[in-house]
Amino acid sequence: MEFYNRPTAVLDEPRPVPKFIEFTNTIYGSMHASSFFSTLTTELAAFLLTITGLTTVQNAFKTVPPTKTKANRDYAFNVSRISVRGIRGKVQDIADADPSHAVEIIVAAGMRVKIVVTRVPQVAGAYLGVLPLTILLLGDGGGNHNFRMSTDGETWTNLENNGKSHFLVSDLTNDTLYYFQSRPVLTKNRVAPWSTIFSLKARD
């Protein structure tokens, strides 16, 4: 597994309805004014409708005598809460798509940033090593793997089993295309089928 720090959008939703209305209006105003969210025109318009609807029902509930019931107000409140959480999801999608500006994007939406350590599954394949003429092989997930290599994709040489999910191949020939396969080692010395072939040219 690999790990990275993911900036995450957080909603600090106030519980009192008047403060919640103020909170959602601030988010709408921030997002409406920011170019980061120019693709969310439809979503922001729908979000504004829920804020306006809640405001109208809340005012009617507070008139004397009230013209809306508490149940009416609570329903509109719940709709607005669902709506703002949907908007948070859209903000997160945009932030995830642009990691270098993720914090700036979340702040521009009027939301709080929380850094979350996220695990990324290991993707099997061949990758250039840090040192010249080396290739790093990764198995599919963790655990013990077998690896093998070839220069023609037909005749294979088994690589030393190091009891890990990765293997560093060294002393390769520059600009030569190498082929590789991996397979997990299962319990009781059983092995899974070889993976599909992945290939890479060695570089000095």
Write the layout of secondary structure elements.
Elements lengths: L1 E9 L6 H16 L8 H22 L7 H28 L4 H7 L3 E9 L4 E4 L6 E4 L6 E6 L6 E2 L7 E4 L7 E8 L13 E4 L3
Antiparallel strand pairs: 1-2, 3-4, 4-7, 5-6, 5-8, 8-9
Helix pairs in contact: 1-2, 2-3, 3-4
Quick take:
With 204 residues, the chain is α+β, with helices and mostly antiparallel strands.
What form results from the Cα inertia axes?
A: elongated
Rounded to the nearest angstrom, the distance between the terminal CA atoms is: 28 Å
Strands of the widest sheet, in order across it, are 6-5-8-9
What is the averaged pLDDT score? 92
Residue share in β-strands: 15-25%
Report the major sheet: 4 strands, antiparallel
Radius of gyration: 27 Å
H/I helix tally: 4
Give helix and strand order, one letter per element, not per position.
Answer: EHHHHEEEEEEEE
Structural class: alpha+beta
* Low-confidence spans: none
Helix content: 25-40%
Q: How many E strands?
A: 9
